[in-house]
Amino acid sequence: MPTDTTTATETAAPKGTPAADGNPLYLVDGSGFIFRAYHALPPLSRPDGTPVNAVLGFSNMLLKLLADLKAQAVAVVFDSKRENFRSEIYADYKAHRPEPPEDLRPQFALIREAVDAFNLPCLELEGYEADDLIATYARQARALGRPVTIVSSDKDLMQLVGDGIRMLDPMKNKYIGPDEVFEKFGVTPDKVVDVQALAGDSVDNVPGVPGIGVKTAAQLITEYGSLEALLERAGEIKQAGRREKLQTNAELARISKKLVQLEENAPVPTPVEELVVREPDHRKLVEWLKLQGFRSIVHKVEAELAKDGALADGAAPTPAGAPAPDRTDAVRAAFNARNFTPAAPRADGVPVPSPDSTEYELVQTVEQLQAWVDKAMEAGIVAVDTETDSLHAMRAKLVGLSLSVEPGKACYVPVAHKKPDAGPSGGLDFGGDGGLLPGQIPLADVVRVLSPMLAHPGVLKVGHNIKYDLTVFNRHGMAVAPVDDTMLMSYVLEGGAHGHGLKELGQLYCGHTSITYDDVTGTGRNRISFDKVPLDKACAYAAEDADVTLRLYRYLKPRLVRERQVTLYETIERPLPAIIARMEQEGVLVDRAVLRDMSRDFAERLVHIEADVHKLANRSFNVGSPKQLGEILFDELKLPGGKKSSKTGAYSTDVTVLEALAEQGHPIAQRVLDWRQLTKLKVTYTDALAEEINPETGRVHTHFALAATNTGRLSSSDPNVQNIPIRTEEGRKIRAAFVAPEGHKLLSVDYSQIELRLVADMAGIDALKEAFQNGIDVHAATAAQVFGVPVDKVDSDLRRKAKTINFGIIYGISGFGLSQRLGIPQVEATLYIKKYLERFWQLGQYMEQTKEFARQHGFVCTQFGRRCTIQGIRDGKGPQRAFAERQAINAPIQGTAADIIKRAMIRLPDALAAAKLDAKMLLQVHDELLFEVPDAQVEETAALVKRVMEGAATLGVPLEAEAGWGHSWAAAH
User: Fold this and answer.
1) Which of the listed residues 106, 107, 434, 607 has the most CB atoms within 10 Å of its CB?
2) Could you count the other beta carbons within 10 Å of the beta carbon of residue 814?
């Protein structure tokens, strides 16, 4: 078979509208990008402590603009100040916008310094917004026949798109043209202002017409042609409510249009012809970069300029009157995204190995495949990735796989691509044509050639979310070890700072926009499964994934050492994929009959509850409709507390509203809550669980996500076994459907009060530590301390209150929250919290120290060194900041608990094997592990699992695990 080699440049051009010919002008929305850069990157500080995360993000955007787009005409435009001519039109315009976060304020001036250091035009105009200057310059450039690119994703600028003007979203590396504007607003760019005038803008406090959103506004403007025509003909509208809104608020709509319409004739501070890229003062640039602490960037710039002689000692000065030598290309080369992109979380950055071009080979013969296997054996490392026909690994059929042994070179091995008219695939297939495309290696041959290398201990297999690939390979008869996982490396280094998908990290670290799944399979009704993708397109997509994975490995693995995260990665995260993959493959048996009976019971009870609700409402209505329910509660029954949404015009009937009404003694609210809870259980579990049973195994195989939470906890989906409610009788019944096969029991072992034990240990609360060390009832001990009574005099009510306070404090509960939980006045609840913190003063000290650490660093740490990012800890808004502070207090506790149970999970397989016990670990639900155990081994297994879990960490208080077993999960817990 002929060999098909695909070559692609490493850094793809932005996707979208092509540029017009001519001398393009790039107008950068500086003010808009500052905030995007600030929120996109975790907190960073330069050596003197000045925050620089937004500065770094902004600088990278400028550098990419200069390097990738070869821009010759650029201007960076900023807002002058909040007050401008729009405030005279509408006094409340942007009036409710909060002050910038405290750590962003000093960066405004630094970002202007960055623009100056790169010698780019920096523009602002008093009395006008940046958008007005951009609009003015864009129109002036078009009058000269020049194309314009507005570097921004701000929706307010989309009214300018068209006639040689486009936008570029620098975060997504995507152009925005008329099609993208229509997709967002439902109208062409020339109608955007009219739609915005109707819909308003809560961010800028543009009033619009209350109750009319973007979708409705687009429909109206499309039908009537313009805002003015609509307002003049509003009386023709059939919908009475809509007609009244438009007639009543016509003047507000006209004012809103003046607010959103950009001024295209502002007095420009610099002529458009002078907005050009000029060579920077290289020494000034280097000194500025050094001041920010961007050390690796400095080294790169100095190396490039030294080649050009710009920084050489004794370099000949430029003769008087002669033009300065243009070394702008040297600066561009230093920052070319194909060669260098600094790591977002590090102010100094580190070069990422990225070749200028790629060579991707389509492997169609056994000989070609063997050659790649030989390369991997020689290199001792290979990046691997599988392509399948399903996101669920236990149902996925292998369609192909990719390998890479050095950056820029990768291959794709197709095994099950089908002809376009072939039917759907199903199950594993080691033989037969099945409508397969020609030019593919039989799966049996792929297994035979690959297996020795995949299992070889001397070859490291690197994957991104390798757990998925391990399951796919295993189901196709291929064992894989040892492995490394770039997703987990990124997760350890940057936790909740951003997502950890391969495409996102490729963009973040390599400056590379990867081919997306949608690019090769299409979207919506036109989407095809991956096994129908043509081989050349599949090769470009899949080989790129292996290539990017290997480059990420070469960048992230050394960072683990530099940032002292090796132990966390090697001892907790790296061993997990193989263990979790085995758990997912085992699955858990579910009794269909139990589910069927529960569904029937729930359905009958829902009918009765609905009848009760209708009786209390004095009429029938759709209980599941929030709008109808709100009208019943607040318009017809006249219950207190009704609040309408400014966006929808409907009453809020969320759980907090209903719970408040129920506590006030309104039975209809409680019955609606009962109806909602039972409906959720029926739809989410008793009905849906049966659909999740794998037809090949007869079991449910949940998917555990390893890098989805900020604290290190695993999360579960398809189905989500971690969200099954266990505090209500109905919720506990769901676990009765999870059963053991004949001759086995389900064994549940969970940590007892682990988070409270960790609070006592981490905060150094002597009284609580003593209670745990002596085996005293900690809630009774707390009640004695807080309420001033002897332990033996603590009754059930005081113990209940102490228990609520103990666990509430961990989550930063407020006086109001505690009052709601205990059903007591808020003043009394606040007093309880005050007494608690006075008695356990070490906890208050720990909380304040933890919040301060989070404010300084942007993250907190577990006892095992895991960094948990705390977004919004410096937010100027009180509620957001308070929420972040609660996160900061809880994350080290919850994260340490997650680390501990992971350590136990890693030790258990070897411990069980050494004891010759046949238990299978099936599920992890926060602090609990579930096993399937032969009847004869239950007690021995329970003792061993308890011993391993209790020995997973050494604390200042003892860890305790409790075990139970039975035929079902409900009976075991």
Assistant:
1) 107
2) 15
Task: Kindly report the length of the chain.
Answer: 973
The answer to whether the Cα torsion of 260, 262, 267, 268 is positive or negative is positive
- H-type alpha helices, 479-534: 486-494, 502-510, 517-521
Residue with the two structure tokens 């979203």? 169
* Alpha-helix residue ranges (DSSP H) falling in 736-840: 754-763, 766-773, 778-787, 796-810, 815-822, 826-839
CA distances to 398, 603, 757 from 541, in Å: 16, 47, 49
What pLDDT, on a 0 to 100 scale, did the predictor assign at position 809?
A: 76
Q: What is the pLDDT of residue 424?
A: 54
CATH code of the domain occupying 755-897:
1.10.150.20
Cα–Cα distance for residue pair 366/386, rounded to 1 Å: 18
In the chain, % helix, strand, coil (3-state, to 5) comes to 50, 15, 35
Q: H/E element holding 460?
A: strand 460-463
The contacts of residue 939 (CB under 8 Å, 6+ apart) are none
> Token pair of 696, please?
């090949």
Comparison of pLDDT for 402 and 772, the residue scoring more? 402
Homologous superfamily of the 25-274 domain (CATH): 5'-nuclease (3.40.50.1010)
Element spanning 626, H or E: helix 626-630
Please tell me the class of the 588-697 domain: mainly alpha
Determine the Cα–Cα distance for residues 160 and 264; give it in Å rounded to an integer. 10
Residue reference for tokens 């977002």: 344
CATH number of 357-586: 3.30.420.10
Which two structure tokens, joined as six digits, stand for 74?
């650029």
Question: What pLDDT is recorded for position 96?
Answer: 58
What are 168's strand-pairing partners?
A: 151, 175
Question: Residue 486: which of 567, 412, 545 has the closest Cα?
Answer: 545
> Hey, what amino acid is at 443?
L
Q: What is the pLDDT of residue 309?
A: 53
Q: What's the pLDDT at 647? A: 63
**What tokens does 486 get?**
């770039």
Pairwise pLDDT comparison (56 vs 610), residue with the higher score: 610
Question: How high is the pLDDT of residue 300?
Answer: 60
Cα–Cα dist 854/868, whole Å: 9
Classify 746 in phi/psi space as left (phi over 0), alpha (psi -120 to 50) or beta: beta
Give the torsion sign (CA, 848, 51, 506, 167).
positive
**Which pLDDT score is estimated for 347?**
35
Using the 8-state DSSP alphabet, how is residue 343 labeled?
-
- Give residue-wise pLDDT tens across range 328-366: 444 444 433 333 333 333 333 444 544 456 899 999 999
Average pLDDT of 67-90? 76
Tokens of 183: 């997709």
Q: Which residue has the tokens 């949940």?
A: 702
Q: Is the dihedral of CA 532, 537, 543, 545 positive or negative?
A: negative
| Domain range annotation of the chain | 25-274, 282-335, 357-586, 588-697, 755-897
Distances (CA, A) of 287 to 256, 283, 293, 299, 347: 46, 6, 10, 12, 15
pTM above 0.70, yes or no: no
Which residue shows structure tokens 């603009």? Answer: 65
β strands within 616-743, DSSP E: 699-700, 703-705, 715-717, 738-739
